């Protein structure tokens, strides 16, 4: 029998990689997409199958985590063996701007899904994965952070995800559901949303190198993160649902770097060496040397990064470092892609996109738009 998976957040970074992975495993994959005024399925367009074709194994349904009746109907129709709840308002800084919406989607949305599974009597059939986060650790109580480290969330996003974490545990304990949390540390890829820090850096520097943007404006570049590749992390999401008993796992690399270091690596991929000068709000990154031909618009002495307090958060998570020992010992999971390899891949893809845009701009088909945030 073909297994069926339902993925919320299928149009996001993880959803797209997970859908690819599950299709490779022979699954029938159903995803929930939000209605938007323009197409929002770019990350999954390459695996889209015309629903009119026979034996299509990839299907999208309109829906939203704020809509219980819609979720119930989709679950009833699809009858999935596995549900992956990846949908979320996932931006920490944005959660300070829209705290109530973030709680509705990230916390209540999880409850709505779990309750729909129970209401439909599917709690013994359907396995449930919850996209939990290292942001739960926030103001860290122990380093490295592991499954037993106490939580101290530092944003409306993290507080909402804390509810989702515990309601998942609660449905497991109360109703015997196979439900588990993956406590995932930051993971990135060329498909990462453009406003998360790694992608903002790789895309911004590639654009600057092609003369499409003047300068990158950043927040706290001293923040320390444990970054992995999304492809490695979605494999683990699936592995967690294949065990005999449901458990929660930390997924991380166990290595930590600063945002400043990620800027330096990205620049190096473009053949630029940067010098950081100044302190606090006056800190800036200046081009020290250039090699190769990836940065034709730059010269030595150009300032390519400045600090803008607009990107500081009301409460910051300064440092995160995960301990993936349990995932390694119990599931045999180890990340295969290093953060440096991932950074190189992201810069390569963003440079290709910047070169394409440069051609369009040069021929008058587009005007350069410096989108930040
Ligand atoms: P993305 O922001 O790339 O994707 C989020 C997805 O959720 C998108 O498909 C988005 O749809 C969808 N979504 C947003 N709001 C709703 C809603 N109201 N109803 C239904 N769907 C909605 O996130 P990632 O892929 O990076 O992350 C996946 C999950 O893992 C998220 O829950 C995130 O919080 C969590 N997480 C991520 C980590 C990371 O480092 N990437 C680390 C730890 C946890 P649309 O495309 O229309 O916007
Ligand atoms: P994070 O990721 O908040 O950890 O949440 P993000 O990439 O947004 O920030 C990481 C760190 O970089 C600092 N920073 C900046 N961040 C952004 N976005 N833009 C900037 O200009 C900037 N300058 C410095 C931030 O302050 C922060 O310390 C991500 C999301 O994917 C969550 O959904 C997920 O749960 C966690 O990772 C684990």
From TrEMBL:
Catalysed reactions, as listed in the record:
GDP-alpha-D-mannose = GDP-4-dehydro-alpha-D-rhamnose + H2O
**Single Gene Ontology BP annotation:** 'de novo' GDP-L-fucose biosynthetic process
Cofactor dependency: NADP(+)
In Gene Ontology terms, what is one molecular function of this protein?
GDP-mannose 4,6-dehydratase activity
Record's SUPFAM superfamilies? NAD(P)-binding Rossmann-fold domains
Report the sequence similarity comment from the record: Belongs to the NAD(P)-dependent epimerase/dehydratase family. GDP-mannose 4,6-dehydratase subfamily.
The function of this protein is:
Catalyzes the conversion of GDP-D-mannose to GDP-4-dehydro-6-deoxy-D-mannose.
What name is this protein filed under? Answer: GDP-mannose 4,6-dehydratase
């Amino acid at each position: 029998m073909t297994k069926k998976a339902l993925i919320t957040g299928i149009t996001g970074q993880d959803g797209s990689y997970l859908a690819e992975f599950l299709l490779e495993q022979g699954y029938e994959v159903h995803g929930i997409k939000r209605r938007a005024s323009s197409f929002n399925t770019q990350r999954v367009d390459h695996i889209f199958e015309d629903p009119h074709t026979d034996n299509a194994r990839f299907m999208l349904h309109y829906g939203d985590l704020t809509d219980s009746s819609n979720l119930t109907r989709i679950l009833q129709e699809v009858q999935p063996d596995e549900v992956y709840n990846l949908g979320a308002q996932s931006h920490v800084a944005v959660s300070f701007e829209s705290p109530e919406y973030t709680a509705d989607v990230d916390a209540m949305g999880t409850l709505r899904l779990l309750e729909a599974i129970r209401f439909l009597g599917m709690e013994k059939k359907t396995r449930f994965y919850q996209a939990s986060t290292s942001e739960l650790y926030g103001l860290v109580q122990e380093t490295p952070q592991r499954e037993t480290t106490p939580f101290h969330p530092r944003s409306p996003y993290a507080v909402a995800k804390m509810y989702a974490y515990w309601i998942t545990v609660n449905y497991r304990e109360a109703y015997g559901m196979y439900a588990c949390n993956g406590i995932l540390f930051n993971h990135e890829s060329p498909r990462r949303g453009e406003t998360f820090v790694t992608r903002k850096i790789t895309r911004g520097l590639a654009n600057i190198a092609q003369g499409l943007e003047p300068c990158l404006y950043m927040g706290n570049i001293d923040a320390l993160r444990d970054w992995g590749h999304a492809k490695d992390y979605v494999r683990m999401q699936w592995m967690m649902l294949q065990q005999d008993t449901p458990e929660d796992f930390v997924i991380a690399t166990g290595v930590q770097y600063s945002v400043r270091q990620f800027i330096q690596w990205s620049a190096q991929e473009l053949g630029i060496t940067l010098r950081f000068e100044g302190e606090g709000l006056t800190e800036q990154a200046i081009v020290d040397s250039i090699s190769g031909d990836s940065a034709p618009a730059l010269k030595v002495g150009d300032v390519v990064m400045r600090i803008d307090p607009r990107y500081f958060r009301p409460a910051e998570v300064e440092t995160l470092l995960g301990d993936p020992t349990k995932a390694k010992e119990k599931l045999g999971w180890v990340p295969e892609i290093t953060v440096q390899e991932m950074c190189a891949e992201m810069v390569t893809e963003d440079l290709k996109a910047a070169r394409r845009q440069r051609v369009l701009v040069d021929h008058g088909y587009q005007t350069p738009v410096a989108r930040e945030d």
